[in-house]
Amino acid sequence: PVLRPHLGRRPPFASNQHGGAPWAGETATATRPDGMCPDTAPNNRFYPVTAIQKRLEIKPNAFDDNGMLFVLNEDKQAVVAGTKQAEPLVLRSNVGDCVDVVLTSSLEDARAFHTYSKVNLHIHFVQFDPQASDGVISGMSFEQSVRPYTTELSAPGALAPVGRTLVQAAAAGATQIAVSDASRLHVGGAFGIGLDRANIEIRTLTAVDTVNNTVTLDQPLAQNHESGEPVGVEFVRYRWYSDVDSGTVFYHSHVTFTDWYHGLIGAHIIEPTGSTYHNPLTGQPIRSGTVADIRTTGVAGNTSSGPWPPGAPGTERGFREYVVFFTADSPANGASGGTINLRASPFATRGTDPGRIFSSVTNNDPFTPLFRAYLGDPVMIRGMSVVEKEGALRITGHRFRLERFASEGVQMDTAGIDISERYDLILEGGAGGIQQRAGDYLYYTTIMEQFIDGAWGLMRVYDRQRNDLQVLPGRPAPPTGPGGFPQQQPSPGSAPIPASDPGAVCPANAPLRSYEAVIFRQPIPYSPANVDLDGVVYALADEEAAIRAGTLPARPLVLRTNVGECLEIGLTNKLLQSASLHAGELTYDPQGSYGAAIGFNTDSTVAPGARRVYRYYADQDVGITLFYNLANPTTAARGAFGAIIVEPAGSIYRNPLDGTTTRSGIVADIITPQGSFREYVGLLSDEDDVIGQNQMPYPTVVQGFTGLNYVAEAFADRLGVNADPALVFASPVHGDPANLLQAHLGDAVRLRVGKPWGTQGQVFGIEGHRWPLEPNMAGSNLIASKSFRSGEAFDMLLHDGAGGQAGAPGDYFFGDMRAPFQEA
């Protein structure tokens, strides 16, 4: 290393004016071809960034007084004044671009950890020189964090910090400037002029006059600078090379980490080559923002229709880009502190009727971001999880693939997001989904308590052209004139218009499959010692009496339909509040079969004692899909959930015990023209919010109800029968578990697994067997367990059938592989 230990002192800043690539070299040359950026980079982007203190309104009239943000210098005054939205800073570059960032800070020592503020900017994925552009000062690296420039002339923790400023205006062309104090400066040092300004300039000092407080610069100033502008040495430069299309790239402060929850986070989006970034309202170019229209001649992914965005590559096309940051622990928002882009709309602030929580008619639009598009617009939703729990982003009414360049990937509506994980999701069919229907669509985190605390928002899809939303290049202009969505307006306290028809999403020749279902209160005995007396379940209408009588065990309702079928479900509500059935991944009309009152949509919930028909079309084999009571989302914690399985076209469903036709159930034999398979459906749920969290002593006992298909085979119960832990799974001792799948050796088997509700991530596995991670992708990795989060569901097509690769008969354990939940 170049440096040596100097205990108790800050590392020095890098040479070349605090340059970002002292080891690699800033630009490739004939003698140093491995320099950080190629000399042929199409764009050299410059972003001067300041970390600021800002009182943030997290929800209406609730503030984080210690809010902190990264802002572009040109936007600082507007963000501080409140004329520009306070949000995580999103920067952009194109593949092949070189990015220069200058970071300064105006944070306050008094609000900092240990009353000593330092901040840096740590980036992921892009190419950088770790000696000076990592943001993290590791090993023998140079200083990469900064103190507030407002403290440059004062001792740490001073009650009245003093910074260095210009005392006279300095015109472009000047080489000597007057500063408030020239002490502690030295010849050869790097010096910044206009540290928090858009026109920041960096020079090297060639002379320092501490008597007259003037300094001489190595190069003339290129721009005018006003008296009072901050100047000094507290700045750091980073240099990044966007070598590939990594999509969303997370960056954050890497000093205390607790400042993430106050807002010191952001993203750097790498766009396709040839992209430009525009304001969706005006069409003007922009340099930052969580919402942008991207105009490009490149390709950002693949869908079922081919390269995306649609149109001929090389011609200019456009897509809407929305960036979603999930954060937690905001001190201004409830127990979970859940937010989206540092804003929240808690259920508790949206009235007392749970069926109207999401209604913009009753409660106005939420405080969280409203994303807007025209019907069919290409849409990319990007984002980050900045929370300490595993969760997922769900986008209702739409589907996407986790791998945006893999057109054979499984389509889904929920993307798991772990700590610091990022995603880039292309909506199949564009805004309005496969069904291409205008309306409001809910998006939200599936972490239970954060959803309740307000981490949700709306995507509004219009079918008429508007003056405040640009038409994307390559897209036809929507029709003009009256009509179209929305037809309702805010009327606080009023009820939205009820839906009058389930909608027409099915082709005229689609076969119809119909079910009659009911939702009602029913105690759920997870185990003899753990009975949820407030349980809520869905059931087939003709099975309700048997479930109430106890002659048929309560289990999550599992319905099936085939690819190409029109599915109608009649739901009768026997609760005392509104209820609904909201299904994922199938196509439906949001004005008739959403199963909720969302935004300005009509209300498709079911009043107590009433009945409503929901209509869906199974356009393709999406496998397992989940359904919920979105008229009262928290009832999912009490069991109000189920699944719809889309089977191959022409399938017949049989009871595996006697071969009779079956309409529902956890297990079934599926007989198809292409072959048959055994099927098991497993739905997990939990209420625990402590396991795996930052608590000491480390919690080991699961809180609340947890189960697989409403059943918990608790170790404690079994050890009470036989204390030998080696026999805890032994059927001769305890009998078979309630969740039992039987098959002959070599039988084709599909397990459909989901977690409709909860707060924890789980790991599902089946011992002795493997299945492809991407079942439609040739050569997909074979896995034996899979992590997943609330809201996610997946299909396990066992690779070698029952008995696994070994072809061995016997009993194989399957279930939750997380030990505390397995024990519970």
Provide an overview of this structure.
By secondary structure, this protein is mainly β. The protein has four domains: 1-148 and 239-271, Immunoglobulin-like (Sandwich); 160-233; 288-319 and 328-462, Immunoglobulin-like; 512-823, Cupredoxins -  blue copper proteins (Immunoglobulin-like, Sandwich). It has eight helices and 49 strands. Strands 16, 17, 20, 21, 23 and 26 form a six-stranded mixed sheet that branches. Strands 39, 40, 41, 42, 43 and 48 form a six-stranded mixed sheet that branches. A five-stranded antiparallel sheet has the order 8-11-10-9-12. The longest helix has 7 residues, at 715-721. The two termini are 52 Å apart.
Question: Keywords, please?
Answer:
824 residues, mainly beta, Immunoglobulin-like, six-stranded mixed sheet, 5% helix, globular
CATH topology of the largest domain: Immunoglobulin-like
Kindly estimate the percentage of residues that lie in beta strands according to DSSP: 25-35%
Helix content class: under 10%
Shape descriptor: globular
